[in-house]
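Order emerges. For instance:

***
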Amino acid sequence: MGDPYVHPEVLVSADWVEEHRNDPKVRIVESDEDVLLYDMGHVPGAVKIDWQGDLQDQIVRDYINAEKFAAICSRSGIANDTTVVFYGDKSNWWACYAYWAFTLFGHKDCRVMNGGRKLWYDQNRPVTTEVPQYAPTDYKVQSSNEEKIRVFRDVVLEHSKSGKPLLDVRSPKEFTGEKTHMEDYPQEGSLRGGHIPGAVSVPWNRAVNDDGTFKTADELKAIYESEVGLKSTDDIIAYCRIGERSSLTWFVLTYLLGYSKVRNYDGSWCEWGNLVRVPIAKGA
């Protein structure tokens, strides 16, 4: 059978979601890169939380504040004790991004639907275009996990200089500097291509199967431990281009493998590639 995930409770199956989608203590949240997908069809009862329009501040490059986050939860029928289950496109990149944002604001019970939107559709499960309406809650942000799971550029620079583990989870050509974004995307967002000195290339998609589900614990250990040489007690920073792909890697290392100190650099390459007086590296 192999080793189990360290925190298997954070992953739920499509069967579980279908059984619990009408449970008043559970809220299903869809979060996609393609913000039009939800309107084309979604899990019945699911609400949409837009990573850019909802979770990002529209004036400052940062997340929304606690008051706005509480308002989003309230309008979505999410209370402090609600089990929130995220799913989305792109093998749950954006679901993990939303999960990470909810964790920043201290929400206690967050989970991810293994396989995401693709698996739900591939299995011909029920979908609807109806947008649900829930009674608003009195949500209150009670704590913050920012220091534990988020990191900023000055800390990343010291981390790089000290030789601590840095994971670049972008595509190989982004890592080498040949591209500043993934293939088939506009090559924009940063003035320079390359990677943070000392970073190791471990593309995010190595952690998932073709059907969008996560690989087994043994398969993940073969990548991150046997191949890359990480230990569960390492101080690890992950980054990508804007922090969404690295949220998936953060989720994998933190919950599926049980690593104790993994932080996401959501400034990522769009910030680092434009910073004055910081070093970059090119090539493999």
Observations:
- The chain is about 30% helix and 10% strand.
- The domain at 8-145 is CATH 3.40.250.10 (Oxidized Rhodanese; domain 1).
